[in-house]
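As promised in the previous annual report, we have extended the structural survey to additional targets. Below is the entry for Ricin B lectin domain-containing protein.
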Amino acid sequence: MSRAAMAAEKKQKAGTTMYDLMVSGQEIMFRVRGKDNLCVDDGGSFNAATTKFVDMPCNPNSVNQVFKYNIKTGGLESVNKPGLCIDDGGALSAATTMSRLWYCDINNQNQWFDMDESTLMLKNPVKDNLCLDDGGATRAAMLEEKKKTGPTPYDMLLSGQEVMFRVRGKNNLCVDDGGGWGAAVSTFVDKPCNPNSPNQVFKYNIRTLEFENVNKPGLCIDDGGSLSAAGSTARLGYCDANNQNQWYVLDESTLMLRNPMKGNLCFDDGGGATAGASKFVMRSCDNNSPNQHFEILSRPAMLEEKKKSLGTTAYDVLTSGQEIMLRIRGKSNLCVDDGGGWSAGATNFVGQLCDPDSPNQIFKYNLQTREFENVNKPGLCIDDGGSWKAGGSQAHLWYCDPNNQNQWLVLDEDTLMLHNPMKPNLCLDDGGGTFPGGTNFVLSNCGDDSPNQHFEILSRTDFVEARRKKRIDAGIDDDINLLNSGQKLMLRVRGKNNLCVDDGGGRSNGATKFVDRTCNPSSPNQVFTYDAKTHQFKSVNKPGLCMDDGGSLGSGSVQAQLWECDPNNRNQWFVLDEENMMLRNLV
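The corresponding structure token record, generated without further manual editing, is:
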């Protein structure tokens, strides 16, 4: 009888069989018969001979479990890894090599497989009595089955979204890299789950099997290198697709993270039940261990959960896109100030009295580029100066450039420290000053106990409103907005019987000195405008002349005078301390 006739007769009697599915060219999966929904899985690698085949929970979305059969060559090619086929490893005797992916080659007899439809066994036709033992299910059918359960943790990893790992059964403790900003700087520990922490958010690369820290680009979870249980502690290491110490595969049925190249070793939190109590290691996989099961959490979902329980946090204010100020914690109302320059590198950052009207202190943070841009000086961003050593350069404004790593700063919400994610263990530091303009900002070695590295994130709008209420409560009714409006104004000495600042009457450089005179709005010597950009008080009736402190750096050694206006003349820079209505020289 013709084969075609026999095939038609068979189809009429038996319908579509496993063999029919296999030779149809459809995408197929192989389920191991009788083994609780375990499927043939190539181990995860996208390269030849990098991982060995294992049993994994059947997942039709896994790139490691879907194949097509070529009836002409007898080869089973990975659908998601074109050009790579199932290869038995090359041995001619039983169990002497492990199956792996290898470059598809029609002449490679290690890739030839025939299905015995009566037994569902895959035989190598040129290797006497050697078989693979598999079931057989179509991917389409598996997808339909999966729809009943909805998205799973493995799906979340495959999507490439930002994820966190919560240790199952341990009071909201998550996997935390320990806080280091370089390779092998710190070891992994359990910490309270915080979706704003730069130490707890990762992305999974299905092609390389690596978990990369989202906030520390180029650094991945690394088991430390040991091939034995608890032989090394986990840390961040430079991401390397060929580094097998960074390969992790999720067993979705148990929520355990396995290293596919290290027999029966799983990610383990070390056994601690409280934050920081133990360090992560690889241990022998144990489904009953309370230390090896990790819930895969979406960072956006965790953020929403946190907001419901804690409300708006410093990190929320920072990343909201609103105008913010950075106040140095513990230092009497000192804020990050760019020094007053209006061009790249013109002045260095210093601490100055917090002033929401100062053009030098208001920034917006770009979460995507990690940059702080000055709101009043568009296109200029905080830049650490370029050094990779502690104290090696001073911070200044520079042209915003998302590719300039000197402008990358990430907030650690737990410590309120600003880290440069590309410069190991370096944080923004105010230089140690305790009074306005005392020292210049630098990057220094990060220190939780340093008084110079912790920055409160303030909403400019909230700061202005709090200041207004404080002034009302103190009975101060001066019109602060008038100062920065550019309108004509006078300066009255508080508590001195209607005495005002008077330039003395001169009309040229240094002709007369400033004195107190009875306030007179008609006097040509008492009316000024204030330029918020240059910090100068300009005489309204004597164009081109500004208030000048006389030039001394000592107390009371020279008298104030009128002098030719010069925005670069630091003797003419004045800023109002709104807490006490005093006029300070910025520098």
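The mean pLDDT is 87. Helices lie at 3-14, 18-23, 139-147, 153-158, 299-310, 314-319, 460-473, 480-484. These points will be discussed at the next consortium meeting with the crystallography subgroup.
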